[in-house]
Design goal:
The protein is α/β, with parallel strands linked by helices. It has 26 helices and 25 strands. Helix 11 packs antiparallel against helix 23.
Length: about 700
């Protein structure tokens, strides 16, 4: 369904193509001057610099952006994983005519390189051969500096997830401090945040038409630096919007006030103590000319409470239907954020995903394996966005809460392209999904309500009554995909929102009986309500209901299938007791998990604001507001992870000490009722030595006897 806001915009495929459209479509976007020569180019209009290997597939941001700009008529070159020790690699394609587009890649460069314990990873899934170290820390900053050194007069446009989530002052886990907006540190001319196709296309055409990038300040989904607020704008202090009391009500031409009878005009005399509703006409505020001032960088650096407050206000001003511009002072400059972009329509989504992608890595990589490509090469992205609002996740902050879905025809066409074009295809589609597997075509029942809503989640603490949770379109899509000629099976690999799924038993049945390959990953994240409330995740009641359906529908078709739950250790709000209770739940249900995610505070996530401030930004934030316990110390974080992996002997010494300290020695012993055994088994090396000793000892030796 196309909203009013969408219908009033120029569709992204309706721009007049740039003159270079005559060069046609490149087999692969060029990464060398030699490739440019083959295409007949003397220069590139835009050069995209990325920290990822170039894979011409819509799941990789630079390919999607590059093909989109190419279709608009621009000549696009790619500099992939350049050596950043000098500016020379950034000159490889010459000087771009319009701008450099800079991104760290599909992942934040710090998350990509470091574990949750700040240890350097040994591999990189987005690099040929998984070789680590092919991108710098804070890649957007480094690439921007080198591009500026290469051609100082070329505009710098930064975007994708690393830049998007650092658009205002943000807590940086790796340096344990609040850093300035990436706009300030990168010295970029403009930042595009979120899924930026709409902003990118308009910006590029306007630069091509001769506008200076510093004069382009009216595009939604962009951020830039200003010296002062322009005339005609009304400044609103964020502390006036989110102070103790109710959140500022939605703008309404009428205001309902309580008054006493003597103050109202009535035909009958009312008792003095009787209150009536008095309707007072209120001057309508033009929100399109309001800018909300967040606490400055200098203020949030020194005041974690103000940091949490700023985070909360940013999230409340995230709905494209009612969001206002935001401003945050950094020294003598203002970081200005225009409201979020208007989501793409289904036709526009089909256009984006319908580009002539080669659907493979650039030939320069030869036969080198690229793990991220191997993982998604047979998958299809059917939608984007997420209205779950999980506090530890940045998808909502980046892609938005409004679901943008492709058409059934577009998706099935891509399934056929995989069947016909992708080498190594065996007939199995690995995923039809997105950020969440089962939010396809879901939206608010009312466009008016959606445009005015300021809730942080549509499904927490319960599913909103205004949310359409109909799974029928998704069920039909699954059935048509699995019945496509040449398709043996369609699996669902994206994360499943099971509290939504249980509203549609027919969907769960279709999923379980046809789209599970023996195991289905889901993410309860925790068992304890205290922690779940800080995550904005549903309680275990929804999990239990889903598991009952999963087991029943699996049994109906004679399949032995299993749920693989995922949990987060050391999340803000989690205490040692919470983690112990989770461990007991896991043992009760006989789960022995190999993979455990330890909470990583990523920029802009609500849980990161909790981690840094010790406050709960899901509610009003003041000096006296709710305190959140934070598992911050390394030993505590390791202990919380050990509780989830209670079955690993390496964790038993730590768990024994913790259980004794907690007064729960009753859980230490050798029976099934105990969490961990009382004795530590022989180490692997000691066992090997004993085995070698026994093998070499003369046969007359007496066997060892266990001491009684």
């Amino acid at each position: 369904m196309q909203t009013t806001a969408q219908s009033s915009l120029k569709a992204i495929n309706k721009y007049r193509p740039y003159w270079a459209k005559r060069f046609g479509t490149a087999p692969m976007l060029p990464m060398t001057r030699k490739e440019m020569d083959v295409l007949g180019w003397d220069s590139c209009d835009i050069i995209l610099v990325t920290g990822d290997a170039y894979i011409d597939h819509p799941s990789f941001g630079m390919a999607l952006v590059g093909r989109l700009l190419e279709d608009q008529g621009f000549r696009v070159g790619i500099i992939s994983q350049p050596d950043w020790s000098s500016a020379e690699p950034f000159k490889a394609l010459g000087k771009p005519n319009l701008y450099f587009g800079i991104t760290a890649g599909n992942m934040d460069s710090m998350v990509n390189r470091y574990t949750a314990d700040r240890k350097i990873r040994s591999d990189d899934a987005y690099t040929p051969g998984a070789i680590a170290g092919k991108r710098p820390d804070r890649a957007v900053l480094v690439y921007s500096q080198r591009c500026r050194e290469s051609f100082s007069d070329v505009p710098l446009v930064i975007g994708s997830i690393e830049a998007s989530l650092r658009r205002i002052a943000h807590y940086d886990y790796w340096s344990d401090k609040v850093r300035r907006s990436i706009l300030v540190d990168s010295k970029a001319d403009i930042l595009l945040y979120g899924n930026a196709e709409r902003a990118l296309i308009e910006l590029t055409h306007r630069i091509a038409d001769g506008e200076k990038v510093e004069d382009i300040q009216d595009i939604r989904g962009t951020a830039f630096l200003r010296k002062k607020i322009p005339e005609g704008w009304e400044e609103v202090a964020s502390t006036h919007l989110d102070r103790p009391g109710k959140i500022e009500a939605h703008v309404d031409p009428y205001e309902m006030k309580m008054g006493v009878g003597s103050d109202c005009e009535t035909k009958e005399k009312l008792p003095e103590d009787v209150k009536v509703i008095q309707v007072v006409r209120k001057t309508k505020t033009d929100r399109s000319k309001q800018v909300v001032r967040l606490p400055s960088f200098e203020e949030v650096v020194d005041n974690p409470v103000l940091y949490a407050h700023a985070s909360r206000v940013l999230h409340l001003e995230a709905n494209p239907g009612n969001a206002r511009a935001l401003i945050q002072k950094h020294g003598d400059r203002e970081v200005w954020l225009n409201p979020p972009p208007i989501p793409l329509t289904t036709k526009e989504m089909d256009y984006v995903y319908g580009m002539p992608y080669a659907r493979k890595p650039h030939p320069a990589y030869g036969d080198a394996k690229i793990s991220a490509w191997e993982m998604i090469r047979f998958s299809v992205n059917i939608m984007r966005g997420c209205f779950g609002g999980c506090t530890f996740c940045s998808i909502t902050e980046h892609e938005g809460r409004i679901i943008q879905s492709r058409s059934e025809e577009s998706i099935l066409k891509e399934v056929e392209e995989i069947r016909d074009k992708v080498d190594g295809f065996t007939g199995v589609i690995s995923d039809l999904g997105g950020p969440t597997a089962n939010m396809y075509r879901m939206a608010c029942k009312s466009e008016t309500i959606e445009a005015s809503c300021r809730k942080l989640s549509c499904v927490y603490p319960g599913i909103c009554e205004n949310l359409n949770t109909d799974h029928s379109a998704l069920i039909e899509l699954y059935r048509k995909a699995r019945n496509t000629k040449g398709i043996k099976k369609v699996l669902i690999g994206s994360g499943l929102r099971y509290d939504l799924a249980v509203t549609s038993p027919e969907y769960v049945k279709e999923l379980v009986q046809h789209h599970v390959g023996g195991y289905l990953k889901i993410a309860p994240e925790h068992s304890e309500e205290n922690v779940l409330s800080k995550m904005m995740k549903p309680g275990m009641g929804s999990y239990n209901k889903f598991k009952e359906m999963f087991d029943r529908f699996s049994k109906e078709v004679g399949k032995e299938q299993y749920l693989i739950p995922y949990f987060i250790a050391a999340h803000p709000g989690a205490t040692d007791e919470d983690m112990l209770n989770l461990a007991l739940w896991l043992k009760e249900h006989d789960f022995k998990l190999d993979q455990v995610q330890t909470f990583t505070p990523t920029p802009m996530a609500m849980a990161t604001a909790m981690y840094h401030s010790g406050k709960n930004p899901l509610r009003k934030v003041t000096n006296d507001s709710e305190e959140v316990p934070i598992p911050r110390a390394g030993g505590v974080r390791r202990l919380h992870k050990a509780f989830i992996r209670y079955h690993d002997p390496k964790n038993w010494p730590m768990l024994r000490e913790a259980l004794q300290r907690m007064g729960r020695s009753d859980l230490i012993g050798d029976s099934k009722k105990h969490l961990i055994p009382g004795r530590q088994p022989l180490s692997e090396n000691h066992s090997k030595r004993m085995h070698q000793f026994a093998r070499n000892k003369p046969s007359t030796a007496k066997p060892f006897k266990r001491a009684r």
